[in-house]
Amino acid sequence: DLAHHYAIGRGKNRKTMDHYGYEVLALCREHHQSQHDMGVESFDKLHHLENSWISVDDRLNKMLRGERNDE
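RESULT FIELD:
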């Protein structure tokens, strides 16, 4: 799963929103759910992830929206 560092909110359409200003990290389903259950700060501290999140750039934003990334 691609987890957002800070929640983007229920009901938002991830295919139409811009993800700029968010940070993401690939997590397995179990750890993604754990992140939501315990909260991002506790999750980061438990797994030592303070500087591991990736800022969304143009290419990643297109991928998250389901757009092609043709060069």
